[in-house]
Design brief:
2 domains; 70% helix; 568 residues; two-stranded antiparallel ribbon; 24 helices
Length: 568
């Protein structure tokens, strides 16, 4: 056993030196998301009346599916902050661990780095142990610093114990996904498959939590509907949300408990401060880490326990040009994301039956529906728009991945043989961009189809498919803007491609908490998604959509010509 782990300590130092900037930036990003809004929360939300309105909004089944449950008899700042930030902070930490573990296990194997290390006096299991120790160390740092950062803010209802438990919860979630990814890396055929499977597990955990939280009951009691922005009379505002307890359901509660994201919610931070969910995650982490170590000792280096699918001896007749090559390289990821986005959209669509019954059973909402021009539809439209906006931001990720795949092929040295033939660089990059544009359109359509197909089964008066298509396609220009930006960066400055992820992360943050926390208008509208109107709440603005599409064309054209001119 000691021989298997020989020189693991030296590998820990090597990994820390090699990835010091990467780890520092990721850690700062996780800490910023977990702690930055804590001191601003009271000022952004406002007085007690605004807090109560926000509580009713966050008990809406749609908001519970997105953010998580409410709990406790009083909606304190701590409960509010946990509902806003706990799940998404944990998901960001989990994403960091997934990328880090695969990078230093299967990716290093595929690129030959571990083979070089294997020629030195290093134990077979030393690298995996070193990777997990470094990941666990940074998760511990994130847990301690984020907990302490929230505690020092001194916000009422956010005590030291709850703050430290908040940090421990997101740290434990990171540990769980580090160990789970290490296990997946032993099974998957390639590094790319390992990343895809690990993120599929993360997405599945989110969907299980959403389904369980909504099914088990939104909060503990029945919330009365509250209209936000009702300035004078019932008819002058739009409902911001409605909450209602639908009764405890053991099966739904079990779905949340199976998910690590649902499990950490059951800590009931700043109210009960339970530690058992964290202990359960740590126990699962140890089991997964142990299994990963056992499998790592049995498999061949550079290969997973599941053999890759055998390819053809001869290429297909369709594989004759840059466009078909781009499709061949990205089709697996594209198909997987279509299925994932459909599952997310369908899970959101399934909650509309509950919301419709809430509107019908609530006296205030019946009065509002009767006084508004569009009736009950005007109560649903804000929720439809918000869900479509969030799902559109998520659907931007695979479209950007398609364009950045060309950068990955360049980094691995696979383009040298291609460019030794008569292949146009412009056509090659244009092929990836075209696939990304088509994927963006398909995903926006899938969002509409998934939401509608699920809602039509649970609603007596279902959402019109045409309306859903208009809502989702309204955000297509913003998705395409990120595609154009990625094309420009691949062509002109491939090392700066991280900028597209930073802008997308900022945009998602503004979409997610901007309006709920009353952030400045310039901050919310200073993103590609923010400049577009919130259809059907707001009227469409063709000029804005045309301007975004023009920006896409300029960015893509500049990227194509820059890619033609620069060294590859």
């Amino acid at each position: 056993m000691r021989a298997q782990m020989h020189n693991a300590a030296k590998l820990i130092g090597f990994i820390l030196r090699r990835d010091r900037l990467w780890l520092i930036l990721w850690t700062l990003g996780c800490l910023t998301l977990a702690t930055s809004f804590a001191p601003l929360l009271p000022e952004m939300v406002g007085d007690a009346q605004s807090v109560e309105v926000l509580r009713e909004t966050m008990q809406n089944p749609a908001m519970v599916a997105i953010c998580g449950i409410t709990y406790g008899e009083v909606y304190t700042w701590g409960v509010m902050y946990s509902q806003f930030m706990l799940i998404w902070s944990a998901m960001l930490v989990a994403a960091m661990n997934i990328l880090f573990v695969v990078r230093h296990t299967r990716t290093d194997e595929e690129e030959g780095r571990l083979e070089t290390l294997g020629a030195l006096p290093v134990g077979r299991g030393a690298n995996l142990l070193a990777v997990l120790v470094v990941a666990f160390g940074f998760d511990l740092v994130i847990a301690l610093v984020s907990g302490a950062g929230i505690a020092v803010c001194g916000i009422e209802g956010m005590g030291v114990a709850g703050s430290l438990l908040f940090g421990a919860a997101i740290g434990a979630c990171g540990l769980f996904f580090a160990a789970a990814t290490a296990l997946i890396a032993q099974i998957a055929a390639t590094a790319r498959v390992a990343v895809g499977c690990a993120f599929a597990v993360l997405g599945g955990a989110y969907l299980l939590r959403a389904a369980g939280d909504v099914g088990a009951g939104v909060g503990a009691g029945v919330g009365a509907g509250v209209a936000s922005g009702v300035a004078s009379g019932v008819g002058s505002g739009v409902a911001s949300g409605v909450g209602a307890g639908v009764g405890s359901d053991a099966a739904s509660e079990m779905l949340s408990l199976i998910s690590p994201l649902g499990l950490i919610e059951r800590c009931h931070l700043f109210v009960d401060d339970r530690a058992w969910p964290i202990l359960a995650l740590l126990a699962a982490t140890l089991v997964f880490a142990g299994l990963a170590g056992v499998l790592n000792a049995k498999r061949d280096s550079g290969a997973g326990l599941i053999a890759p699918r055998a390819g053809r001896a001869r290429a297909s007749a369709l594989l004759r040009g840059p466009l078909s090559l781009a499709w061949r390289l990205t089709r697996g990821m594209a198909i997987a994301w279509v299925l994932v986005v459909y599952a997310i959209a369908a899970s959101y669509g399934s909650i509309f039956g509950d919301m419709a019954s809430f509107f019908e059973s609530n006296e205030l909402y019946r009065l509002m529906a009767g006084s508004l021009e569009g009736g009950t539809d005007d109560l649903m439209n804000p929720i439809l728009s918000m869900l479509a906006l969030i799902m559109s931001a998520i659907a931007t990720v695979p479209a950007v991945f398609v364009v950045l795949r060309l950068k990955g092929e360049e980094r691995h040295g696979r383009l040298e043989q291609l460019f030794s033939c008569s292949v146009s660089r412009i056509r090659l990059l244009a092929g990836f961009v075209l696939i990304a544009v088509l994927l963006a359109f398909v995903l926006q359509t899938i969002i509409a189809l998934g939401t509608w197909s699920s809602a039509v089964m649970v609603m007596d008066d279902p959402i019109a498919l045409g309306l859903m298509l208009k809502i989702t396609l309204n955000y297509l220009p913003a998705v395409l803007f990120f595609v154009g930006l990625a094309a420009f960066l691949v062509g002109a400055a491939p090392r700066a491609s991280v900028l597209v992820w930073l802008l997308l992360g900022y945009s998602f943050l503004m979409v997610y908490v901007g309006s709920l926390l009353n952030l400045p208008t310039w901050a919310q509208e200073g993103t590609p998604f923010g400049v577009l109107p919130r259809y059907p709440i707001e009227a469409p603005e063709p000029a804005v959509a045309i301007a975004l599409c023009a920006a896409v064309a300029v960015l893509t054209g500049a990227g194509l010509f820059a890619y033609r001119a620069r060294n590859v």
